[in-house]
Amino acid sequence: MSAAARARRLDEDADIVVLERGDHPSFANCGLPYYVSGEIADPAKLLVQTPASLRAALDLDVRTRHDAVGLDPDARTVTARTPDGTVTLAYDALVLAPGARAVLPPIPGLADALEAGVATTLRTVDDAVALRDRVVALREPTTTAGRPARAVVLGAGFIGLEAAEALRLAGLDVDVVELAPHVLPPLERELATLVTAELERLGIRVRDGLGAVELHRSPGAAAAPVAVELADGEVIDADLVVVSVGVTPDTAPFEAAGVACERGAIVVDEHGRTSVPGIWAVGDATVSTDPVTGVRRPVPLAGPANRAGRLVADDVMGVATRPVPRPLGTAIVRVGELTAALTGANRAALDAAGVAYETIHLHPGNHAGYFPGASQLHLLLHLRRTDGALLGAQAVGRNGVDKRIDVLATALRHGARGGDLVDLDLAYAPPYGSAKDPVNLAGMMADNLTSGVLAQWQARDLDDVLATALVLDVRSPAEYATGHLPGALNVPHTQVRERLAEIRAAAAGRAVRVHCASGMRSYLAHRVLVEEGFDSANLSGGMLTLTAWLGRDAKDVLVVGETGSSPKELP
After folding, report:
1. Considering the entire predicted model, what is its pTM?
2. Cα gap 40→130, rounded to integer Å
3. DSSP letter string over 459-475?
4. Residue 561: pLDDT band with limits 50, 70, 90
5. Distance between CA 145 and CA 221 in Å, rounded?
6. pLDDT of 147 higher than 90
7. What is the predicted pLDDT for the residue at 223?
8. Is 385 exposed, middle or buried, given 0-12, 13-18 or 19+ CB atoms closer than 10 A?
9. Is-contact 292 391, C-beta < 8 A?
10. What is the Cα–Cα distance from 477 to 474, expressed in whole angstroms?
11. What per-residue confidence (pLDDT) applies to 567?
């Protein structure tokens, strides 16, 4: 629709026809979970435009229930299936925007559950309306014979978690099943742990690291209609199942007609032109090159698709245009009281692409700590090791996450280095931020790292550090007692200077690996140690990041109950 609307604004006389397979040519796909939850009460609010409104405003000929099923590039015709049979239309220029379809994993029993209406995807307005109706019915005690209604969500990506939250807000018991090791697989492990904790706080049970192996239909009116069997043998009785394990480009008829595709996604150049003259493509079904790693993949996000549609229309209409920018994959999701967001490459993508990088973690307040309502942000940045260039950023927190990720996405788009963030002139007043905004603080850390003022160790290095180095815990004795690493020496950061001899003796020639709760106090201690000739490095993100990285294993690693050491007699 973005391409069609832009084309009309550029040419009042063009004959512009839009074929839409469903009933709604322009709807708020991203709003569907919020209708299921009841936060959006009227399904009509999900309809951004209708065929009538598009005809009135833009004189577009929008034909719903026209599913494009064939293409003849030589004859320049496209064939569509309609309720009244097939029709063939000629074109001078054709823009393909077929989008993506939900992936349906080959789980025995899933097809039957979908056919019976006890399993569903969440891709269309009709999906959302049917799911909402089902939820309302399940809240009636007679529907479930008095037992609590339960939903199982297969897949814990962005849409899966939005669906899980929606179902929980609507009053159902909810289980989330995710095959990947943690929820929100694009999010780094140490941040995903925080999201899992919030899901559990909401009363949503998380089963990660395993998948569903079969769906069994349950006989009898009193029983839940489907039983979801997991890979570990657990069986979850469910009244409905939402399948949200990903999407795949919906391009079969166009690939069959000779439009070049890679793994089902349409190959386009920088202006959206396909391999076939006179045909352009845009959106979820097209291949995009990752601007950080160079990997070619589709990016199924609304923002890039809408913006690209405008630029493709410019090229179709012969207007001088700039290239379609390569999407960074910036995304955000609400989970309970938390927000999680990311932009650019994550650790897995960088590792797969062979990019050498460093990661910094910080845990600042979202605004000035002295102003009421401040909450903690958990922020990480990936930086190219050779020059400190920003490669990606992620954040989780209650407030201010969207603002920081948007700033970092902008910086990443313009090729900023981490140290450049120090100089960003960001809005500040106590209710909104700090004189040193979290983004500025991240820049200071990045600058320290690339200049050599800061050396780091990471949570993933824990086993090696415990085996080869002295761990110096510079928190207070009370903090130390709440949980510390085995064998760690506790010297509060204010005592490091006066206890250097003790630290040197404990190290016995080994490297010293310092940490505190968040990384700030240990950075101060690190600088003292470096000046005194120690081989020192600071734990990125401190104990907050380490315990999040360990997740459920933290209780088996940390030692609880011992008090911190007291100053010893110095020689």
Report:
1. 0.94
2. 15
3. GGGHHHHHHHEEEEE-S
4. confident
5. 8
6. no
7. 66
8. middle
9. yes
10. 9
11. 42
Residue 493 amino acid letter? H
Other CB atoms within 10 A of residue 444 CB: 18
CB 342 within 8 A of CB 184: no
Cβ-count burial of 454 within 10 angstroms (0-12 exposed, 13-18 middle, 19+ buried)? buried
How would you write 483-533 as a 3-class SS string? CECCCCEECCHHHCHHHHHHHHHHHCCCEEEEECCCCHHHHHHHHHHHHCC
Q: What is the pLDDT of residues 342-367, one digit of tens each?
A: 999 999 999 999 999 999 999 999 99
- Output the CA–CA distances (angstroms, integers) from residue 36 to 116, 129, 174, 561, in the order listed: 20, 7, 14, 46
**Residue 222: pLDDT band by 50, 70, 90 thresholds?**
low
Name the β-bridge partners of 102.
Answer: 247
What are the structure tokens assigned to 342, written together? 């990311």
- Mention every residue, 6+ apart, whose C-beta is less than 8 A from residue 161: 176, 183, 184, 195, 199, 333, 335
Handedness of CA 120, 123, 126, 129 (dihedral sign): positive
Contact of 330 with 343, CB cutoff 8 Å: yes
Q: By the 8 A CB rule, do 489 and 496 touch?
A: no
Q: Which amino acid is at 250?
A: D
DSSP bridge partners of 242: 120, 153
Tell me the pairing of strands 150-154 and 240-243: parallel
Task: Determine the Cα–Cα distance for residues 288 and 327; give it in Å rounded to an integer.
Answer: 7
The torsion of the CA quartet 66, 123, 404, 458, rounded to 10 degrees, works out to -130
- SS3 category, 420: helix
Tell me how far apart the alpha carbons of residues 213 and 229 are, in angstroms, rounded to a whole number: 6
Distance CA 8, CA 384 (A): 44
Determine the 3-state secondary structure of 148 from DSSP.
Answer: coil
Structure confidence by residue, pLDDT tens digits, 506-531: 999 999 999 999 999 999 999 999 99
User: Is residue 335 within 8 Å of 199, Cβ to Cβ?
Assistant: yes
- In what helix (H) or strand (E) does residue 235 lie, and over which residues does it extend? strand 235-238
**How far, in whole angstroms, is CA 321 from its chain's centroid?**
31
pLDDT at position 144 over 80: no
Residues labelled as active-site residues: 516
Extract the tokens encoding 339.
Answer: 């927000």
Q: Are strands 150-154 and 173-178 parallel, antiparallel or unpaired?
A: parallel
Hey, what amino acid is at 173? Answer: D
Q: What is the pLDDT of residues 37-80, one digit of tens each?
A: 999 999 999 999 999 999 999 999 999 999 999 999 999 999 99
How is residue 440 written in tokens? Answer: 């500025």
